[in-house]
Amino acid sequence: MITTREQLIHSLTEAAELEHNLLCSYLYAVFSMKREGELSLTVAQGEAVERWRKIILTIALEEMAHLACVNNLLIAVGGAPHFDRPNFPVAPGYHPADLVVRLTPFDPATLDHFIYLERPEGMEMEDGAGFESRGAPRETVVEGLAPSAPDYASVGALYDSLADGFRTLAKELGEARLIDPDGRCQLDSALVKLPNIPRVTNLEDALGTIRQIKEEGEGATVSGIASHFDRFQEIKAEWQSLSAQDAGFIPAWPAAHDPVMRKPAKGAPRVWITEPEAAACLDLANATYGTMLSVLAQAFGGSSAEDKLILMRVSVELMEASAALASQLARMPASASHPGVNAGMTFAVPRNSGYRPLEHRARAIFLERTEQLRAGAQDALAASVAEKAVRRLENAIALLDGSTRPD
Q1: What CA–CA distance (Å, rounded) separates 27 from 61?
Q2: Is the pTM of this model over 0.85?
Q3: How many Å separate Cα 243 from the centre of its chain?
Q4: What single-letter DSSP state applies at residue 260?
Q5: Where do the domains of the chain lie, and which CATH numbers do they carry?
């Protein structure tokens, strides 16, 4: 039960990490999917896979919007925007026992896992094979002053507890004391260019934002909504139909399950990416992703409206650059120790990706870093891969140095 502001901030921070983890899991599956005209796909299969890819990418973008919404909620109650999270695969017990978070390619078990994660509250179903819970319920001896992560059976249940916490604290403290009525330092759809990101200035805004996140995920409270759960179910039904016609239909490349950049601990079931070309591509993809997180955190800070707009556009260019690299990784051999297995992006998070108080220097530092990324892409990657990444990185550089203006 959420009865203090600190507990509300703590639980919202967990929600931010969970949304971040889910969107990375969905993107990993998207990056592993074959494109129309690629190896072994018929015309009908290629059209279906392209349609599924777009659906899951849209879901991932909606998760990005959910992450922005949760950060608005955090800022509204006096917290800080949060883009940190544990690296993959998330250790058992970090989230509640029923929430397993890994990076896996698009296959039947992964799709079943996505359906399970987005299931409506109270629906009994099995998780995908290989995603069985290894954690234990969260328990504390006392509920004291120190905030602690609550236990919950589903993502929807977490948001229910957040809504209850907002109601309880608004009644106890008053809306204006709990929530900044001016919506300062928040972002909205005009800046982020994603739909349904409102500023939070009162209790009604907060509850509406939470309700929207739940409805888009599980569709539990509104009939007819095209929820994530419904869309994943539709993909599964079409996949089963196509597989019945062709048992050899495989819509994705054999990207690694749980890839890592560094040598894993002995006995850990990880795929260490050691092929030099793939390792260089992974390094650049993660470095670009980490820079994007830092730019996003800065955009939520105290910058002017113009700076926020520039930083948001820069983050989009960095995201597109990392996506091009991630798609290529799923098509590159991972390691001589894992024949037949391809690489994959690991979404490694840098230790310091938060807001930078020296705002007058932040853009210059981001420019310096992005120029390093461009040089790395030009030096380390094959021409066909580098071209896509370099073009996006150069767009980001032009925004940061002021030679182009955001649209």
Answers
A1: 9
A2: yes
A3: 29
A4: E
A5: 1-253 (1.20.1260.10), 256-407 (1.20.1260)
Residue 36 CB neighbours (<10 A):
14
Indicate the pLDDT class of residue 90, thresholds 50, 70 and 90. Answer: confident
Between β-strands 271-272 and 259-260, what pairing exists: parallel, antiparallel or unpaired?
parallel
Helix axes 359-380, 383-401, angle to 10 degrees: 160
Structure tokens at 297: 């955190």
Can you say whether the dihedral through the CA atoms of 103, 109, 115, 117 is positive or negative? negative
Separation between Cα atoms, residue 211 and residue 150, nearest integer Å: 19
Helix (H) or strand (E) holding 271: strand 271-272
For tokens 């608005």, what's the residue? 72
- Three-state DSSP state, 255: strand
pLDDT at 36: 80
CA distance 138 to 157: 14
Count of CB atoms situated within 10 Å of the CB of 126: 10
Which pLDDT does position 216 carry in this prediction?
A: 86
Contacts of 215 by beta carbon, 8 Å cutoff, 6+ apart: 221, 222, 225, 227
Do 82 and 349 contact (CB within 8 A), yes or no?
no
Exposure pattern of 233-257 as b/e (b: 16+ CB <10 Å)?
bebbeebeeeeeeeeebbbbbbbbb
Candidates 133, 134, 100, 380; CA nearest to 257 is: 100
* Sign of the dihedral through C-alpha 395, 397, 403, 407: positive
Contact yes or no for 120/219 (Cβ under 8 A): yes
Cα Rg, the chain, nearest whole Å: 21
- Do the beta carbons of residue 109 and residue 257 sit within 8 Å? no
> How many angstroms separate the CA atoms of 395 and 367, rounded?
11
Q: How many residues does the chain have?
A: 407
Q: Is the predicted pLDDT of residue 148 greater than 90, yes or no?
A: no
Tokens of 188: 């909205």
Q: What is the pLDDT of residue 371?
A: 97
Provide φ and ψ at 33, rounded to 5°: -75, 140
SS3 at position 272? strand
